[in-house]
Amino acid sequence: MVSKNQIKLITSLQQKKYRNQHQLFFAETKKVIDEFLDAQFELVQIYTTQEGLFSQVNQSKICAISETELKKISALVTPNECLAVFKIPVHASFEAKGLIVALDDIRDPGNLGTIIRLCDWFGVETLLCSKETVDVYNPKVIQSTMGSISRVKVIYEDLIPFLKETKLPVYGTFMDGATIYAEKLPEDAVVVMGNEANGISPEVELAVTKRIAIPRFGNIQKTESLNVATATAITLSEFRRN
Amino acid sequence: MVSKNQIKLITSLQQKKYRNQHQLFFAETKKVIDEFLDAQFELVQIYTTQEGLFSQVNQSKICAISETELKKISALVTPNECLAVFKIPVHASFEAKGLIVALDDIRDPGNLGTIIRLCDWFGVETLLCSKETVDVYNPKVIQSTMGSISRVKVIYEDLIPFLKETKLPVYGTFMDGATIYAEKLPEDAVVVMGNEANGISPEVELAVTKRIAIPRFGNIQKTESLNVATATAITLSEFRRN
To answer: Are residues B63 and B112 in the same domain?
Structure first.
């Protein structure tokens, strides 16, 4: 049984404003919830239509609900057995070492989710997001990461001061950059990926110390650009294959 | 002015059944429509709220409409000045040479659109789609390709007979494949990419002659898999960088 107030609270968490106010977010599907539990995220409550689905969890944290109730709180088109509310973790400051990906105003939740999966795959532990980047606790991002968000530290920061001060080389992709295939890429670096429509912003561009490019092989000039998630895929693959 | 029958026809083209019946599809936004015009797709009619937007087109093919009318025929959340109806081209049989991408039941329109952009970027001229792959003339695919679909030949075929008969090596990505970074990849090959949820189907797997893998660098076993579009990005990049 879920109360009116709980329904109101959970549906409000679809909005960034209320996630920030309550410092809570929610995740759906057994698979994704399990990933957060395994990663020691602090659970507030699980709502589920299936008894015994989370036997490892303290039963006081589990609330049995009906399909109709699940529909009321879910953000999915097809709600799937369970929804869990977690506290947003407080990340201590991060260490500027290893390979760091920095996102300059990524707006699409699907792109952010895909990039988090890529960071997880390629062992990138820190993902820096500009303050205008879509919120990582947006339900669409949470679901599209398939749980890998529980293993990548996502930090919202003003990019400019960090990029200006860091001792790491700062890589950015530009049409006129040096081909990424010929570069000797270091293990420790920051890789900046730009906004879907506008690319890397002029202020951030000034902080880039290494301009690289993914060569195009199509036979005409028309090919616009790569989607930011596929460009991130190729770039991270190049950094790791070295 | 757009007639009731035209509205009915155009909105019906959001469904594959009616696209096949009429052998028509539609595209939206000036940018995307221009790409199809440049690529010599056969135009049936342009509907636009802006006079003079397509001065290169025979004016008998242009129909001036109101914003309200555009909303009625558009598949976009925010309709944008114009919509054009084109004939679906009839592709003659294709030549099995060069680098060919074959999709084994890709279901998500966004993934197909992204893969078409990748083919365009990496100079892949032929994209083979299994018959269960999402329809390329689906409005969501058309819009997400940003026009690059006009430069990639997309052919729906039974994959199995083609893969069994082709003399080209057939590459497929599998967890237990040889690392793609160490392979000498040929210029002429077929690269099979599998379904989002189930990967490459068992029947198609039997036709794969080269099992490859994109290595993972994350420190734990949990990382599921790469999204099919990002896996395609990395694979095509490896084939071309050689």
So the answer is: no
Nearest to A222 among B114, B151, B223 (CB): B151
Q: Name chain B contacts of A112, Cβ cutoff 8 Å.
A: none
Same domain, B67 and B124: no
| E strand spans, A67-169 | 82-87, 99-103, 126-129, 153-156
Q: How far apart are CA B215 and CA B237, in angstroms?
A: 14
Q: What is the ipTM of this complex?
A: 0.88
Tell which of B87, B109, B141 closes a domain.
B87
Residues B28 and B137 occupy one common structural domain: no
Whether residue B93 is contained in a domain is answered as: no
Chain B partners within 8 Å of A227 (Cβ): 114, 117, 229
Tokens read off for B85: 């109806």
Residues A230, B117: C-beta atoms closer than 8 Å: yes
- B64 located within any domain: yes
Q: Are residues A45 and A136 in the same domain?
A: no
Residues of B in contact with A230 (CB under 8 A): 114, 117-118, 229-230, 232-233
In a domain, B94, yes or no: no
Instruction: For residue B192, give the 3-state DSSP assignment.
Output: strand
- Nearest residue, CB atoms, B230 vs list A151, A223, A233: A233
pLDDT digits (tens, 9 = 90+) for A115-168: 999 999 999 999 999 999 999 999 999 988 877 888 899 999 999 999 999 999
What is the nearest CA distance from A10 to chain B, expressed in angstroms? 27
pLDDT at B124: 95
For CA atoms B237, A180, A164, A120, give the dihedral sign: positive
Can you say how many angstroms the Cα of residue A1 is from the centroid of all Cα atoms in its chain?
32
Would you say residue A196 lies in a domain? Answer: yes
Tell which of A37, A66, A87 closes a domain: A87
Where residue A194 sits, what CATH number does that domain have?
3.40.1280.10
Report how far apart, in Å, the C-alpha atoms of A188 and of each of A98, A164, A210, B23 are.
4, 16, 13, 53
* Secondary structure class of A96 (helix, strand, coil): coil
Q: Which residue of B has its CA nearest to A241?
A: B181
| Domain extent for B222 | 99-241
Q: How far apart are CA B131 and CA B133, in angstroms?
A: 6
Task: List Cβ neighbours of B20 (8 Å cut-off, separation of 6 or more).
Answer: none
Number of structural domains chain B divides into: 2
Residues A112 and A60 in one domain: no
The model's pLDDT over B50-79, given as tens digits with 9 standing for 90+, comes to 988 999 999 999 999 999 999 999 999 899
To the nearest whole angstrom, how far is the Cα of A230 from the nearest Cα of chain B? 5
Please give the span between the terminal C-alpha atoms of chain A, in angstroms, as a whole number.
54
